[in-house]
Design brief:
A six-stranded mixed β-sheet has the order 7-8-9-10-11-12, covered by helices on one side. It has a four-stranded parallel β-sheet with strand order 1-4-5-6. It is built from five helices and 13 strands. By secondary structure, it is an alpha/beta fold. It starts with a strand and ends in a 17-residue tail after the last helix. The protein is about 15% helix and about 25% strand.
Length: about 240
């Protein structure tokens, strides 16, 4: 089973330039479903999605379906927080349950585009995985906890600072203590940065995961984390 989350496969989106390895074509083959957490440009990139063709199976927040169908995609499933769908890997293949969970993040495609709620995803198969998308901390995270193997937690963003609606390293560590996963993997860092700012604030491309691990050790030394550089993979 291969699930892809919020794919941005280009070297530049708007005023942001990629500072990590460009994903290879391996991310464009044999994908069973693409999960989209919200409509922001750094999470829903139409040129990247078009690489998968109009029949690419997209699972998106409620309210995003019309926008994507008008863009030419035909296999779109909308979910509200609390709803789920079964994803199968080919005829008679393995299957997982994908459930939408709440996220605290403004999901409109600015400045005047479509509006849909932001969500995260909980995936139930041989493993139970939580992909947070973009979110701030919220108490209901405790409802996702319990036998959670992997939590993919955003710890930063694409600029020199993060605002409301986002987890920073300390907030992500706090979320991990509530979720209690076997492994936390910090994501959403070190990939894109505004053109021209790296010279002055390039530290923000490398320090967030270090800060996350430090905060996690202070919050709960028994929790494990796994830092993967953008483009790196793990066989966990």
């Amino acid at each position: 089973m291969r699930l892809l989350t919020d794919p941005v496969l280009r070297d530049r989106i708007m005023h942001l330039r990629r500072h990590a390895v460009t994903p290879g074509t391996e991310f464009e083959r044999e994908i069973d479903a693409i999960l989209i957490s919200h409509l922001h440009y750094d999470h829903l990139d139409l040129p990247s999605l078009r690489r998968f063709g109009p029949e690419a199976p997209l699972i998106v927040p409620a309210g995003a379906g019309r926008f994507l169908r008008r863009a030419g995609f035909r296999a779109v499933t909308e979910l509200r927080a609390g709803e789920g769908v079964t994803v199968r890997a080919g005829a008679g293949g393995s299957r997982v349950e994908v459930h939408a969970v709440p996220a605290r993040h403004q999901g409109r495609r600015r400045p005047f585009g479509a509006e849909a709620e932001a969500i995260g995803f909980e995936i139930h198969g041989s493993r139970r995985i939580y992909f947070a998308g973009d979110t701030d901390f919220f108490p209901e995270l405790s409802e996702i906890s319990g036998d959670l193997e992997i939590a993919l937690l955003p710890i930063w963003g694409w600029g020199p600072s993060v605002g409301a609606g986002h987890l920073d390293p300390v907030g992500a560590a706090r979320a991990a203590t509530v979720l209690g996963p076997a492994v936390s993997v910090p994501i959403h860092w070190g990939t894109f940065f505004p053109i021209g700012l790296r010279r002055w604030r390039g530290d923000r491309l490398v320090t967030p995961p270090v800060e996350f691990e430090r905060a996690l050790r202070e919050a709960d030394p028994g929790l494990e984390s796994r830092i993967l550089l953008p483009g790196e993979h793990s066989d966990h």
